[in-house]
Write a structure and sequence with these properties.
Length: 132
């Protein structure tokens, strides 16, 4: 079920996007910080707070109980150590022409490293979340 939820989210997000472009430094800093906050909330088990950041479309696909399914994945990773690398790109949702900011963040944990792909619309709402 966990894998299905996140595959649905990732697929829903990816089918609607066109090519990514780079962003300026201020935009990079803003969305890198937003992504880091989401990652820290997930590490702290603050799933309800993360769901509060979801855009309405994402809320219909994934609720707090569904999001909690990543808890074992994060737990098996061990203690959070650091953020290793962040990339931020801008793309456009095909049907609405809405700007989407895609962050890919490599996170170092005690036992396993994880990659978080977190996407935001231009109102800073979370529109995509994938953890590998």
């Amino acid at each position: 079920m966990l894998r299905k939820s996140f595959v649905v989210l990732l697929t829903m997000f990816l089918f609607a996007l066109v090519a990514c472009t780079s962003v300026d430094d201020a935009t990079f800093d803003h969305y890198a910080e937003e992504a880091e906050q989401v990652i820290l909330m997930l590490n702290d088990g603050e799933y309800g707070e993360v769901v509060n950041l979801f855009a309405d479309e994402l809320k219909t696909e994934l609720d707090e109980a569904g999001l909690r399914q990543i808890e074992p994945l994060i737990a098996e990773s061990g203690a959070f150590e650091s953020i290793k690398k962040v990339n931020v790109d801008k793309t456009e949702e095909i049907s609405t022409k809405e700007e989407i900011f895609v962050t890919v963040t490599q996170v170092v944990y005690e036992n396993n490293n994880r990659t978080f792909t977190i996407s935001f619309n231009d109102q800073d709402e979370l529109v995509g979340l994938y953890v590998k």
